[in-house]
Design goal:
Helix 1 crosses helix 2 and helix 8 packs antiparallel against helix 11. It contains eleven helices and eight strands. Strands 3-2-1-4-5-6-7-8 form an eight-stranded mixed beta sheet, sandwiched between helices. The radius of gyration is 23 Å and the shape is globular. It is an alpha/beta fold. The chain has two domains: 178 residues, NAD(P)-binding Rossmann-like Domain (Rossmann fold, 3-Layer(aba) Sandwich); 101 residues, Orthogonal Bundle (N-(1-d-carboxylethyl)-l-norvaline Dehydrogenase, domain 2), CATH 1.10.1040. It is 50% helix and 13% strand. The structure holds nicotinamide-adenine-dinucleotide. The site of nicotinamide-adenine-dinucleotide has 24 residues, from helix 1, strand 2 and helix 4.
């Protein structure tokens, strides 16, 4: 199904930004909220955001009035237009509220309309449990701010139809110019599960008096950010060595008495098979005969590129 007319329910931090992306993509948007004041602020936030993007060459100033005209604000959101193709709720992170909002839309919207949630962590199967047409329902987790950050996670629930997932992916990528990743319906999906692991660990280190808030942030800004931005966790493991990481993780699991650090069996199996990363030609990824020296030089080049970019 081709998505043209959209409705965003909830005009807070996420909702107004998602509505902006849709309007910038040339779609008509209904933006609704139970709170009139938030709705009024939402429209002016969008205008401010667009003017800001002009400074970065991302929006043409002359297009702003047309973009704003595409967003129609509605207090309450009970009026469900029959020509809406895509509804996305961005109401607070409360499963009962989300079920109620989506249920009332489903009872009046077109049968082939797609319904989505932008939940941050709640499983799509839980939110969709009370829907009559769960095949039309999908998780679409936007990053904040949606009009700046490129990635959107698409989370099909157990009953979401492939056609719905595919329509949403095409819409987000081709129309909204987003990068998407489709992932399993696990709590926290990809981004927030990994983010939570890092944040909670950092918070525990504060509690244990290991370092200050500032120094933990500094470690990310001066090191971890470069490494993970260029290589991701698995590209990085391949450079460090799967054997080294496995040993380190086992040590932490033992000393900290925390099984969350224990390496999963697939990692140990790779080590046992001699797939140690770039040094053995294969680890998580296969380096297709490229020598460890070639890979070492490439790593240095990529790190220098990003460090120099940041210093400019
Ligand atoms: N804030 C973030 O950084 C972020 C990032 C990604 C995803 N999310 C998720 O997006 C969703 C919205 O988060 P937010 O930060 O925008 O919240 P928010 O509190 O800023 O906005 C929620 C809006 O929903 C409105 N609302 C409440 N009940 C409603 C109803 N029945 N009908 C219509 N509107 C209603 C509220 O008035 C409010 O304006 C949550 O599920 C959150 O987990 C948030």
């Amino acid at each position: 199904m081709k998505i043209q007319k959209t409705h965003v329910i909830g005009a807070g931090a996420m909702g107004h930004g998602i509505a902006q992306v849709f309007a910038q993509s040339g779609c008509d948007v209904i933006l609704s909220d139970v709170n009139r004041e938030i709705l009024e602020d939402a429209k002016s936030h969008v205008e401010t955001n667009l003017n800001f993007l002009v400074q970065y060459g991302l929006v043409d100033r002359s297009s702003i009035p047309t973009i704003l005209e595409r967003i129609q604000t509605v207090v309450g959101g009970e009026d469900i237009s029959s020509d809406v193709d895509f509804f996305i709720e961005a109401v607070p992170e409360d499963v009962d509220l989300k079920q109620k909002v989506l249920g009332s839309i489903e009872s009046v919207c077109r049968k082939d309309a797609i319904l989505a949630t932008t939940t941050s962590v709640i499983q799509v199967s839980d939110i969709g449990a009370t829907l009559e047409r769960p095949k039309q329902f999908v998780g679409v987790h936007w990053m904040n701010p949606p009009y700046v950050l490129p990635l959107v996670e698409i989370i099909p629930g157990p009953k979401t139809s492939d056609a719905v997932t595919s329509s949403v992916r095409t819409f987000l990528e081709d129309r909204c110019q987003k990068k998407t990743v489709t992932c399993g319906d696990a709590p926290g999906f990809l981004v927030n599960r990994m983010a939570a692991a890092v944040l909670v660990e950092a918070a525990k280190m504060i509690e244990e008096g290991v370092a200050s808030f500032e120094d933990i942030d500094r470690v990310w800004k001066e090191h971890m950010g470069y490494i993970f931005l260029q290589f991701g966790p698995f590209g990085n493991i391949d450079h460090i060595g799967l054997d080294v990481i496995t040993m380190a993780a086992n040590y932490l699991a033992f000393v900290l008495e925390d099984d969350r650090f224990r390496p999963p069996s697939w990692l140990q199996e790779k080590v046992n098979a001699g797939d140690l990363g770039v040094k053995s030609g294969r680890g998580v990824y296969d380096y297709g005969g490229r020598s460890p020296e070639e890979m070492r030089i490439e790593r240095i080049r990529k790190l220098l590129e990003i460090i120099q970019q940041r210093s400019h």
